[in-house]
Amino acid sequence: MKELKCIMPSPLKDKFKKYGDTFELVTKNESNRMYCYRRTTPEGIMYFEVFRSNLYKDENGHTYEYYPRDSQFGVSAWCIRDGEHAQEKVQNYMQRKYE
């Protein structure tokens, strides 16, 4: 039986496409690894994703940050679609403290 390969997560980038949507870095808080990305659908619908980055160590021992898994949304990642209060919510999440 062939050995299964683990799919390594991609390091965070300032701009990328996934699921047909465009993701652009808006801000980051390096002290707590919190990030905010603007997500825009092909139809032009825009909202924000705020999350605490995950850490991954590659086969060379280099550590890098990557986007959260779907299962992390609601725990350490949030999707903000409320345009009226989006900025307030983003700022609240970006200031969270983690130990």
Provide structural commentary:
By secondary structure, the chain is mainly β. It has one domain. The protein contains 1 helix and 7 strands; from the N terminus they run E-E-E-E-E-E-E-H. The strands form 2 sheets. Strands 1-2-3-4-7 form a 5-stranded antiparallel beta sheet, covered by helices on one side. It has a two-stranded antiparallel sheet with strand order 5-6. A hairpin with a 5-residue loop joins strand 5 (54-57) and strand 6 (63-66). The longest helix is centred in the last third of the chain and has 9 residues, at 86-94. The mean pLDDT is 90.
Taking all Cα atoms into account, the compactness measure Rg is 15 Å
Across the major sheet, the strand order is 1-2-3-4-7
Strand content: 35-45%
How would you classify the helix and strand content by structural class?
A: mainly beta
Distance between the termini: 42 Å
Compressed to H and E, one letter per element, the order equals: EEEEEEEH
What low-confidence regions span 5 or more consecutive residues with pLDDT below 50? Answer: none
Count of structural domains: 1
